[in-house]
Amino acid sequence: MDDERLRRWRLVLGGEADGTGCSLGGADARMDAALAALYDAQGTGQPAERSAGLGGSAPKVARWLGDIRTYFPSTVVQVMQKDAMERLNLTRLLLEPEMLQAVEPDVHLVGTLLALNRVMPERTRETARAVVRKVVADLESKLAQRTRAAVGGALDRAARTHRPRRPADIDWDRTIRANLKNYLPERRTVVPSRLIGYGRRQQAVQREVVLCVDQSGSMAASVVYSGVFGAVLASMRSLKTSLVVFDTAVVDLTPELHDPVDVLFGTQLGGGTDINRAVAYCQGLITRPSDSLFILISDLYEGGVREEMLRRVAEMTAAGTQVIVLLALSDEGAPFYDHDNAAALTALGVPTFACTPDAFPDLMAAAIERRDLTRWLERYRDKA
């Protein structure tokens, strides 16, 4: 047990713990070398010269990527790859097809590739698309079925009828509330004079959904998830889904929603931000305000006219459009955002918060049913 404990501490502390007297061999030595190449900084804590010397050599980096995939689980590999991009400045090496074939695809890697999209050589582009397509397919397999079920069920429940055909179609909560005046104290029961039920979903469009996504560099993961969710929602006939991305310009990617990979490669991460201009464009897309849901996904750092942005949002809510602001749509934790703009939107009655991809289907269902999103958010935070 003492030898095993010493071995573990040696791996945790790195080469500076050689004085422990614990020598590493075989797989342990190769694991230690892979960690040292990324995290050893000769005691400075900064990304300086490293003992394993990855440098800018693509073959060495490719071998290192293969090593970490051999010795660590995929979740750890993704963290180490992300750290390598930041600490070793390896982003430019992703322009090599051989490098792309060696990496473990994940959302962060897709964000990096999208940021490099405009400078990516043709010989790398197809490999990059294959990497992005794999990540998108994985996300769709995890999120699509749940999203369709949650949103489809909400659309069914939102279509009310006063002549439900089956007991299963009766909305008992609304029925009881509507018949409280018929309460019989002696029998301790409510005698319903009218029933309220769930209508059956129609094939016609019931809701308009506009996703408006900030494509500034800090929103990379949110852009990836938004593209996937946009494609899933667009596949539902009862929804009319639009996807708009923006920086200082506004791009409508709705025609590309049949293929989320085309959507993602239609984005251009980085640049400034003009939220007001994007909101103005999206406002023009809404034809049925009382049946519309506008979701702005942004860190709210406004480079345009703040007062006009807030006025437009107020106009949308006054017209009956349900407006939601997501500060992030990702698993990355608490986002950086403009607190003043978030507070101003909240004061307008607009729910403003960060949301994980797992919670997004339930959020959509609650919004479609016009539930109190403040209460939904409280339950969501309690679960988190």
How large is the share of residues in beta strands?
5-15%
Structural class: alpha/beta
**Span from first to last CA?**
37 Å
Q: How many strand segments? A: 10
Give the class-level CATH name of the largest domain: Alpha Beta
In round numbers, the mean pLDDT is 83
- Structural domain count: 3
The name of the CATH topology of the largest domain is: Rossmann fold
Low-confidence stretches: 42-53
Strand order of the largest sheet: 7-6-5-8-9-10
What sequence of helices (H) and strands (E) makes up the elements? HHHHHHHEHEEEEHEEHHEHEHEHH
Our count of helices gives: 15
Q: Per CATH, which architecture of the largest domain?
A: 3-Layer(aba) Sandwich
Radius of gyration: 26 Å
Helix content: 40-55%
CATH superfamily of the largest domain: von Willebrand factor, type A domain
Q: Main β-sheet: number of strands, strand sense, barrel status?
A: 6 strands, mixed
Shape: globular
Description:
- The chain has 384 residues and is of the alpha/beta class.
- It folds into 3 domains: 2-104, no CATH class; 160-198, no CATH class; 203-383, von Willebrand factor, type A domain (Rossmann fold, 3-Layer(aba) Sandwich), CATH 3.40.50.410.
- 49% of the residues lie in helices and 12% in strands.
- The chain has 15 helices and 10 strands.
- A 6-stranded mixed beta sheet has the order 7-6-5-8-9-10.
- A hairpin with a 3-residue loop joins strand 6 and strand 7 (250-252).
- Helix 11 (275-285) packs parallel to helix 12.
- The longest helix is centred in the middle third of the chain and has 37 residues, at 122-158.
- The radius of gyration is 26 Å and the shape is globular.
- The two termini are 37 Å apart.
- 33% of the residues are buried.
- The model is unreliable at 42-53 (pLDDT under 50).
